[in-house]
Amino acid sequence: KLAILYSRRQDESEKKVAWTDIPEELKKKRDAKLREYQQRNDGYAGRFMVVEVETGKTLLEKQLWYSTSSGNNMLVWRGDDVYVVGYSNQNAKISKDGALTYFELENSFNYAFAPSADGAAFWTGGLRTGAHTTIEGLVATPFELDALPGFPEYYKAFSAAKDGAAFAGTTSFRVAKIGADGKLVKVVPVY
């Protein structure tokens, strides 16, 4: 099966709520509940499809209140569910009937991300910090690079190893090995 999430588009049927009209209790906390509320009330929608690759048959097609403005996203199958993880860290779990659950991961933004080799976890990274997050229960184990002088260092890419570990490249020309337990093992310069 192939999962497809189209870029967001304006949706006249979805109410657009201005910042001034968002409930104060949501604005005070500025957490995932606020960002989900904004997603549900931003006047944009996403289109999600599941296609049977062998036949081209559409198994599911649904308009979602969830959308992503970035084309930099990863869709990961876990059983019958599809997990969408993207740069903005406004992520979603979409079940086989199209029901959607919004979630955020450990990082503020996901500059780099990849599924684990067995598809049971995500590797994500932002500004020096990263996380190994199990899909079951969304349990995160954070890890962090040591600070270098100069411009901030970001994770740029992850590559999952068969043994459950991962390798990550950074914008400061370093490669990090992270163990299957989500702990930073070694960081070396490659420039």
Walk me through this protein's architecture.
The structure is a single chain. Strand 13 and strand 14 form a beta hairpin. The strands form four sheets. Strands 1, 2, 3 and 4 form a four-stranded antiparallel β-sheet that branches. Strands 5-6-7-8 form a four-stranded antiparallel β-sheet, with no helix packed on it. It has a four-stranded antiparallel β-sheet with strand order 9-10-11-12, with no helix packed on it. It has 191 residues and is mainly β. The longest helix is centred in the first third of the chain and has 9 residues. The mean pLDDT is 92.
> Which percent band covers the strand fraction?
35-45%
The coarse silhouette is globular
Low-pLDDT sequence parts: none
Report mean pLDDT, rounded to a whole number.
92
Q: What's the number of extended β-strand segments? A: 16
* Classification by helices and strands: mainly beta
As a whole number of angstroms, the C-alpha radius of gyration is 18 Å
